Backbone:
């Protein structure tokens, strides 16, 4: 029973990692760049929800939707203003660029007087509620995380499988030049991919907020989503979620059964083993270049 | 404009290309040698930090700038070096031996980390080194019997076989000596076949491989050398601060090191030094400007992070060659005075190249 309990809390944590990893993968697939600012986008999303609820006094659902929409817009603007000018440059410069964006976002939030340096509680309607189910104590906050992640996965799957936009994005991610020749507006799709990734990050932030509080450094959790993305295979959307779940469960179990210190490093140990054993991840595609 | 008339092949690989180099680097050396009598003690300590960071920067430059493998966990090597030095010095080992051990152990750790580099590349390598950095930080914090855990560890003054270097000046000269040796070593390496192999790997792995360069050997070597330099820098860092704790070697330190070489200019030895100067003087400059800003901005804790972020974004967007690239432009402008054209250093437009296809 205790094991099941641990697994459930691991799954909830893993869903958060998975959602952030989903953002990485969306951007990676669309533009072949890696965004180190994903954690900070998540933090901005959580602060957006907080601002909507406590400063503007909106009801819960409106501020959540508002925050997600605002972050989607922010992601698209970010892509247009800073990412697009250096597309095609080595991956290293884009990594440094997104690290810089992360620094700016964290610095700006910290600079807001009286708000930026504090930790806040997001007043969600389901705060501190608990379900008892067949001897299990289920935290509603965690259940919401799992539920929303599931719904989001179905939505994204439908988008990529059936909608014209999703199929165009798949085409662009497989071969940008060929997609361009077929009349797909690759640049606009890149913008949409960033917007989508920022929106997913905002959802992750809003889901995480009731569990860990909202503060300027919550974006560092994004660093744990990298292992999730790698374990799943960097270019695979279902892989990101599965990788997140694996990391979450391993972390939760090692925190309980292994000595101190393993909880924080479990994710990294798993990813190092993964890179040595199967560098392409669980669902990664293996392609090789023709010279 | 200076034209060098080359009359033998040796001129191509000479370290000082012409008299101007000899003169200016000689002058720089002279100023650095006289620095203890020219500047106050505080600035001398800052200068020592610049030298230490420059050594670490040289190591990272060799790895990221010249071999094209980037490491997001370089602070881990710094940490291994610093802790090795601290533990061995406190056990009574003389400075040169302890320094050798610090460099050796860091290099050994670098070899181990270099192993995944043989199979993965690009962003995967970044994540492997990032993970490794976290693990090392955790080990330093948990292995309390040796490292003192989160409480940190004090380190004695360096001791050269009975001759204690207990003043700031003496330690400065020691750092200067090691920096000069490291720089000459790197410059010498870069004009040797090994250095050329590194650059070839950076430019194209496939063509390097088909020219007969053993990728695994050279990548591992690059990791080991880079880690050894970071270890030396870490050892000096430990002596300079006299107190080290695991949180000095976290991810933020790794990012600082990367920021240093990007702002200095990736792919140039000068860049490591310019970046180190930037990294050390920036907090001072911010502290100076702080008082003139309105208090809501000037006293905000996030100011430094914001400035770092903005500077980093600006450099990546507008000056990918960093401070050294900017200097090259200024120098070319002056040398060719009325004939400088705007497009001379224009960045070439390039297509998105897929990394997924190996």
Residues:
């Amino acid at each position: 029973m205790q094991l099941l309990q641990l697994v459930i809390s691991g799954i909830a944590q893993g869903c958060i990692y998975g959602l952030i990893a989903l953002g990485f993968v969306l951007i990676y697939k669309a533009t072949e760049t890696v965004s180190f600012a994903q954690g900070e986008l998540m933090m901005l999303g959580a602060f957006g929800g907080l601002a909507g609820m406590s400063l503007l006094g909106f009801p819960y659902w409106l501020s959540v939707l508002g925050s997600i929409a605002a972050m989607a817009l922010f992601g698209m603007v970010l892509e247009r203003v800073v990412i697009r000018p250096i597309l095609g440059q080595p991956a290293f410069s884009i990594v440094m660029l997104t690290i810089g964006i992360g620094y700016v976002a964290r610095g700006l939030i910290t600079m807001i007087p009286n708000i930026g340096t504090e930790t806040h509680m997001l007043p969600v309607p389901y705060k501190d509620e608990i379900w008892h189910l067949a001897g299990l104590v289920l935290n509603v906050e965690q259940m919401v995380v799992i539920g929303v992640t599931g719904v989001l996965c179905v939505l994204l799957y439908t988008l990529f499988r059936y909608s014209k936009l999703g199929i165009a994005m798949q085409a662009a991610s497989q071969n940008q030049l060929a997609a361009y020749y077929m009349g797909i507006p690759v640049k606009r799709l890149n913008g949409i991919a960033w917007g989508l990734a920022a929106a997913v990050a905002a959802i992750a932030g809003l889901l995480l907020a009731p569990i860990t509080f909202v503060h300027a450094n919550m974006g560092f959790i994004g660093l744990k989503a990298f292992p999730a993305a790698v374990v799943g295979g960097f270019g695979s959307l279902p892989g990101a979620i599965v990788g997140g779940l694996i990391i979450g469960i391993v972390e939760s179990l090692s925190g309980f059964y292994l000595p101190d210190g393993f909880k924080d490093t479990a994710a990294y140990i798993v990813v190092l083993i993964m890179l040595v054993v199967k560098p392409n991840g669980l669902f990664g595609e293996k392609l090789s270049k023709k010279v | 404009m200076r034209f060098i008339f080359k009359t033998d092949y040796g001129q191509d690989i000479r370290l000082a290309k012409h008299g101007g180099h000899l003169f200016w680097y000689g002058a720089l050396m002279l100023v650095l040698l006289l620095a203890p009598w020219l500047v106050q003690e505080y600035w001398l300590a800052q200068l020592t930090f610049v030298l230490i960071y420059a050594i670490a920067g040289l190591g990272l430059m060799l790895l990221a700038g010249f071999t094209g493998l980037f490491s997001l966990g370089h602070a881990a090597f710094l940490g291994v070096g610093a802790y090795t030095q601290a533990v061995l010095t406190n056990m009574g080992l003389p400075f040169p031996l302890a320094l050798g051990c610090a460099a050796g152990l860091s290099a050994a750790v670098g070899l181990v980390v270099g192993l995944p580099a043989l199979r993965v590349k690009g962003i995967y390598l970044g994540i492997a080194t990032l993970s490794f950095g976290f693990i090392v930080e955790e080990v330093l914090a948990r292995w309390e019997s040796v490292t003192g855990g989160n409480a940190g560890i004090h380190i004695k003054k360096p001791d050269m076989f009975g001759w204690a270097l207990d003043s700031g000046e003496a330690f400065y000269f020691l750092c200067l000596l090691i920096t000069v040796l490291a720089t000459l070593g790197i410059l010498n390496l870069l004009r040797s076949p090994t250095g050329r192999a590194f650059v070839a790997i950076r430019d194209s792995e496939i063509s390097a491989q088909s020219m007969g360069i053993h990728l695994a050997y050279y990548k591992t070597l690059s990791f080991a050398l880079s880690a050894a330099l970071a270890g030396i820098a870490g050892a000096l860092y430990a002596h300079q601060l006299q107190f080290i704790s695991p949180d000095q070697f976290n991810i933020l330190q790794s990012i600082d090191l990367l920021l240093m070489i990007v702002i200095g200019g990736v792919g140039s030895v000068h860049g490591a030094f310019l970046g180190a100067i930037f990294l050390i003087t920036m907090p001072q400059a911010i502290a100076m400007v702080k008082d003139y800003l309105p208090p809501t901005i000037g006293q905000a804790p996030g100011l430094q992070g914001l400035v770092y972020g903005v500077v980093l974004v600006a450099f990546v967007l507008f000056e990918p060659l960093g401070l050294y690239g900017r200097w090259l432009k200024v120098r070319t402008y002056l040398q060719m005075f009325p004939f400088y054209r705007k497009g001379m250093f224009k960045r070439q437009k390039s297509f998105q190249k897929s990394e997924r296809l190996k």
Remarks:
- The first strand of chain B starts at residue 153 and ends at 154.
- Residues 193 and 205 of chain B are 16 Å apart (CA to CA).
- Chain B is about 70% helix and 0% strand.
- Chain B has one domain: 40-290.
